[in-house]
Task: structure prediction
Amino acid sequence: MTGTTLVTGAAGFIGSHLVETLLSRGDHVVALDNFDPYYDPAIKWRNVSSVLSHPGYALVEGDIRDASLVDSLFEHHPIRTVVHLAARAGVRPSIADPVLYQDVNCGGTAILLEAARRHRCANLVFASSSSVYGSESEAPFSELAAADRPSSPYAATKRAGELACHSYHHLYHMNITCLRFFTVYGPRQRPEMAISMFTRLIDEGNEVAIFGDGRSLRDYTFIDDIVDGVVRSIDNLGGYRIYNLGTSAVTSLLELTALISERIGRPLRLRYLPNQPGDVPLTYADTSLAADEIGYAASTSLVRGLDRYVDWYRAERRPALRIAR
Result:
C-alpha cells in the first residue's frame, strides 16, 4: 500500500526512521510532531534535518489534541493511511502525571480516529507497547493474553488506545493494526531510555543506577526491525489486528550493561537502588502471529544492534542533553 501517509510523532526516534523508509520507497509523508520539551527539541530537529527538503515530505508542527489542526491535515492532503506514533512516553513519568498521559494518549488518539473516520481514511496503524502485558501475563507474551492488568498509567493508556481502535473497526469497518513494540533501541534513541543513558554514563565514567537486583529481563528490538514491522503492517492492513514486534530473546539488565561497557571500552560501575513502581520483571515477545500474517522476522541480534548503536554514538559525540522532567 503506497500513497500519502500521515505519521504522527514523526520527528521522534521511531517516527524519523519510519519517515525516511517511506520516502525512500516513493511514498508521500505528512509528518506531525509538536516538538514538546519532554526532551530537548533540538534532538528532534536533528532527526528530521535530512528530509526537510524532500519533495514528498510535509512537516507540520502541532499537537494531536488540536482537533482543528488534525482535521485540516485530512482536508489539505490525500491521506490514505495513518501511522499513529505520537504519545506521551515513559512508565515512571506517567505515575507522576497520569492526567497528562490520559489527555495526550487517550484524548489525542480519539481526536485522530474521529478525524480519520470523518474523512473516510480507513487505514490506520497504532503504536502500542509491550507494557500492556503488565507483570501477570504468561511468557512469552502472546497477543491472545487478556492484557487487562496494566502496571502503570502509561500502559493503561496504550491498552485503552487499542480498545478505542477496535471500536472504530467494529463500528466503521476501519482497517486497524495495533503494534506492541518491545523495548526499541538504536540510533536516535531518546536520551532517557536505558541503552542511551547507560552508554552515556559509562562513557563519561559515571555510575549506572540499577533498579532492583539487575536480573529483570527485556526483549530489546533494534529500530530497523521495528520499522520493517511497521511497513509490513502498512502494506497488509485488513480488519483489526494486534501484533507483537520484538525479537523473542531476552537479556538481563546486568548483561546489557556489561555488553555496553565492553563496547565503550570503559569499566562498569553500578549502583543498586530499590525497584521502581510500575516496572515489570520481564518482557518477552511471541512474534509467531506477526511472522505468519505479515512475514515479520527480527534479524538484528542485541550484540549486533549494540555495535551499531555505539558506532553511531561515537560518531555523534554530543554532550548529554537536558531531559525535562
In short: DSSP finds eleven helices and 13 strands in the chain. The two ends are 39 Å apart (CA to CA). The chain has a mean pLDDT of 95. Residues 185 and 194 are 9 Å apart (CA to CA).
